[in-house]
Amino acid sequence: MKQMFLVNKTLAVLSLAATLALTSCSKIDSTDVAPGEETEIDFSARKSSDDPNDQAFDREMTRIFREMQRMVNDMPMTGDPDMDFAMMMSMHHQLGIDVGNAELRYGKHPEGKELAEESNRGNAESRERLQSYLRQHPAPERIDPNVYQQFMREMRTAMQTMNRSFRRVPNTPDVDIDFARKLLEHHEGAIDMANIQLKYGNDRAPLDEGKIIIISQGAEIIELAEFVNEHGIPNTTEPLSDDE
Q: What keywords would UniProt list here (predicted)?
């Protein structure tokens, strides 16, 4: 018997319109959170099945997680939230594409592969729009240093939270389920980053892109959760402890 997957995070998607309206009216201060150290985990060292595809998928997830950690450690600091967001989200999209490509290469379920293709298209299109913005704005437009530091703290915290959620997804022998749950967490991170951009950004193009990301990836989160609920999570899971 398989477990059901309930994601209360997806309820946030139902209030996207309210979120966008609020962020367009005011910039809300948030509590400072000191950056924490991320512990590296080797997904391929978890209890993979004997299936070579499952083992290869887990190795690819390990690589992607390490890249996510490097992304936090190497965050750009130009003094311009719009430029930083465009650069960070471009990298984030590429890692999302890598997750999708792993599903296309190692997954088995046609619907899982379809979700991967849909996600890859959206990530690639958004990344190209952000890259176009960066090409047209090569020099940063710096804001007040104190406000910028708050932006960076919030962005770093959002990315660290995403990384923790990504690595804590239990490893199962089902590549398609693992793909859906990991991509869901990756999308949640993108939405968090986009909401921070809406609070601190100034340029129209990255602000619009943030809204697109919130809506499009929010819709994909619902599709991913529905896929997992429809097919169920294998009982042979091995959750990660906070110490790992």
A: Plasmid, Signal
Asked if 235 and 1 count as a contact pair (C-beta separation under 8 A), the reply is: yes
* Pair of tokens at residue 116: 């991967």
Q: Where are the domains of the chain?
A: 52-231
Residue type, 131: Q
Name the packing angle between helices 81-106 and 204-231 (round to 10°). 30
Residue 198 near residue 207 (C-beta atoms within 8 A): yes
Which residue's structure tokens are 């693992």? 178
57 sits in which H/E element: helix 52-73
For the ranges 7-11, 23-27, 55-59, 153-157, the lowest mean pLDDT is seen at 23-27
List, as own/partner pairs, every contact residues 40-49 make where C-beta atoms lie below 8 angstroms and the sequence separation is at least 24, other chains included: 40/65, 40/66, 40/69, 41/65, 41/167, 41/240, 41/244, 43/167, 43/171, 46/171, 46/238, 46/240, 47/171, 47/236, 47/238, 48/171, 48/173, 49/173
pLDDT tens digits, one per residue of 190-211: 999 999 999 999 999 999 999 9
What is the architecture, at CATH level 2, of domain 52-231? Answer: Up-down Bundle (1.20)
Q: Are 100 and 224 in contact (CB under 8 A)?
A: no
CA distance 86 to 84: 5
